[in-house]
Amino acid sequence: MAVSSHTPGGLLKLIRDGAAATRADLAGLTGLARSTVSQRVDALLTDRLLIEAGEAPSSGGRPPTLLKFNQDAGVVLAADLGASHSRLAVSNLRAEPLATCRGQLPISAGPEAVLSWAVDEFAKLLADAGKAASDVKAIGVGLPGPVEHSTGRAISPPIMPGWDGYDVKARLAESFDVPVLVDNDVNIMALGEWWASSNSADDFLYIKVGTGIGSGLILGGHLHRGADGAAGDIGHIQAGDPSVVCRCGNPGCLEASSGGGALAQALASQGYDTAVTSDVVQLVRAGNPDAIRAVQEAGREIGSVLATIVNVLNPLDIVIGGDLADTGAEFLARIREVVYRRSTALSTRQLSIRASELGDNAGITGAAAMAIEHAFSPSAVNERAGVG
Amino acid sequence: MAVSSHTPGGLLKLIRDGAAATRADLAGLTGLARSTVSQRVDALLTDRLLIEAGEAPSSGGRPPTLLKFNQDAGVVLAADLGASHSRLAVSNLRAEPLATCRGQLPISAGPEAVLSWAVDEFAKLLADAGKAASDVKAIGVGLPGPVEHSTGRAISPPIMPGWDGYDVKARLAESFDVPVLVDNDVNIMALGEWWASSNSADDFLYIKVGTGIGSGLILGGHLHRGADGAAGDIGHIQAGDPSVVCRCGNPGCLEASSGGGALAQALASQGYDTAVTSDVVQLVRAGNPDAIRAVQEAGREIGSVLATIVNVLNPLDIVIGGDLADTGAEFLARIREVVYRRSTALSTRQLSIRASELGDNAGITGAAAMAIEHAFSPSAVNERAGVG
DNA sequence: GGGGCTTTGTTCTTGACACATACAAAAGTG
DNA sequence: CACTTTTGTATGTGTCAAGAACAAAGCCCC
């Protein structure tokens, strides 16, 4: 019945996920003999991937030794590269940042400039965190455009001149000889929010409503990238006002009427001093009725698209992030209202729609989580064990 | 690198999928020693799951022995239970029907009547095919409503009085002591079409446009059922004329304006003698311009919803089935036109949209495929090998 | 056309690994 | 303070896959 948690890496996963905390738990969950578990755990202890953390209360016999995943057995490097600015972090193995920084270098500066900057900053951050380059176990990177995850290259990115086909993975592996994982920034944020919710929902959507609109899908417990790495691109669904032409050239795109950029423009044409999304957020927070009305209308339109997606995918959780999610309860309430009204009863039976927990940290959290999941996946741990 | 194809069942899968045809292939693909492969293959040969089928041409050395999956090592029973009629089949282990039958018993006759009928007919079909009950390895069943796949029960089905919570799995396992797999009929058809296309696309959509409209999603190589088993329910997406109220009670549902039932009704109100979907199909085939126009309009509306889904999921293949798919090229052409125009360029780069290959046989093919996949999954074969 | 060479498949030995069993440790229980 | 329960550890044993040697059966080239 139990899958293949029979491997050393499988045991580590059970501890990491909190499914098991003692050797006896592991034996019970996996069906392995206690002796075998002991042997495996010993190997993980000598590798410092697990540590013993005192005893649990006895349940009538010898008290069990608590096992803990050693979140300080190494670090990962996380990069959330955005169109206009980027964030970097050195994170522990629970994806918690130990040192972070922010840079204003635009992605349009090109891959060499941006990645060299990142490498330099990573070195400083490692020093800040008191870690050596040899402590780095993996690197996770998010890019603001389509990415071919398997090769770690950007593909035909609309807003990233000079990046098309650039081998991000190779460039970073040159500076740090560890696995490099690259993905779309929204996918990364989805992973981050999912991780923050303990990976509890197998079918999970993250919707980012910032200047543009995008989404990351976790389906069946895995990030869904689609045949061309283009999955989740909901900003260009034709659902809005067909008379508005989107920056992508097509009419009626969702983000052309409901994205933060579109709202800023619309309010500006009403005489407000709104150039970017955050200006809109400020207006809403200040209680401006025009801005509130605009944001609510955007919420309804986004909700309408989400209602369709909910009917199709029947997810368990939806998390709304991005700048516009910070406008307060009204925005989320409009989305919820439309989704619950327009989706089928069965598909909303268990559905929860909530605001992002991580906010701006979703990207670096997700990048770190992606790196960790790779470096400490059962198969990776097994290989390491096989060598040692 | 290689996953866990190291097991006996894993080898069988490689042969079944055509990835390997000789022992040497298996050794190369799995990384197992030739001796180990031989041993495993021997076990599968004595179980009659594999058979040797002559030699392949030499490539400079001893010619390899060809291995073939023994499609006659047993049979599966397949049931495609529809609202008004049902189809049953005894199929070989490639999901090819050996004997089929059709019954007019409506699903509303209730679970006991329908399933007893099915059991009786299965016995006759087995006799027709010259097989014994002991040859049956598994049973696959499709039901016209939401199904909790893990338990094999129908859940709150709108058109199946008496079926809510009924344990289909238990009822059939009572008559045939083998694994019983139950799923939604559209999911089953999706599996069937996917199987017929050699499971080549990891992200695959099947759209059924009959009296109602539904879809089955294969994402990441697995059927996507969603949190409540409600995934794929695109018929009740609100995309159509909001003044039309659907049989589900909500306004503007896709199937309320573009389903076969809706078209029949609309044409009837224009004076045509169209009671059911097949009447519409006949009119279209006869070249009636009103009917053609109606079907084309339905194609556009369905295409518009599909365009959204393509943006979200970025599938590789879409197959259109159901009665309306038989109206000829025009219907499909309208769908294609709208999808390619309204989806992003990246997400349609590799997309193929085509008509069903299997037609009416999609259901029983998929039911058989589901049964086979379960009975001959690596883990199942391993368990059997462990016992024997 | 015959002696290599290559490729495929089998037999047998060896070694690793997981299990069971017995044992030790450390608590609760009466 | 014996006894039980629960947890963790050491040791022998059996299973199973790898590896090497061997056998089979075709190419290839002088």
**Helix and strand run of chain A:** HHHEEEEEHEEEHEHEEEHHHHEHEHH
- Low-confidence stretches of chain A at least 5 residues in length (pLDDT < 50)? 1-5
Determine the structural class of chain A based on helices, strands and strand pairing.
Answer: alpha/beta
The level 1 CATH classification of the largest domain in chain A is: Alpha Beta
Strand order, sheet with most strands of chain A: 5-4-3-6-9
The appropriate CATH architecture of the largest domain in chain A is: 2-Layer Sandwich
Write down the domain tally of chain A. 3
Structural features, described:
- 2 copies of one chain form a homodimer.
- By secondary structure, chain A is an alpha/beta fold.
- The first copy, chain A, has 3 domains: 8-69, Winged helix-like DNA-binding domain superfamily/Winged helix DNA-binding domain (Arc Repressor Mutant, subunit A), CATH 1.10.10.10; 75-190 and 363-387, Nucleotidyltransferase, domain 5, CATH 3.30.420; 198-356, ATPase, nucleotide binding domain (Nucleotidyltransferase, domain 5), CATH 3.30.420.
- Helix content of chain A is 40%, strand content 19%.
- The first copy, chain A, has 13 helices and 14 strands.
- Chain A has helices at 8-16, 23-30, 34-46, 111-129, 168-175, 185-196, 254-258, 260-269, 277-285, 289-313, 329-342, 362-375, 378-387; strands spanning 50-55, 65-69, 75-81, 86-91, 97-103, 136-143, 147-148, 153-154, 180-184, 204-209, 213-219, 222-223, 317-321, 352-355.
- The first copy, chain A, has a 5-stranded mixed β-sheet, with helices on both faces. A 5-stranded mixed β-sheet of chain A has the order 12-11-10-13-14. Chain A has a two-stranded antiparallel sheet with strand order 1-2.
- In chain A, strand 4 (86-91) and strand 5 (97-103) form a beta hairpin.
- The longest helix of chain A has 25 residues, at 289-313.
- The radius of gyration of chain A is 23 Å and the shape is globular.
- The two termini of chain A are 30 Å apart.
- The relative contact order of chain A is 0.13.
- At the A-B interface, strand 11 and helix 10 of A face strand 11 and helix 10 of B.
- Chain B binds a DNA duplex (30 and 30 nucleotides) through helix 2 and helix 3.
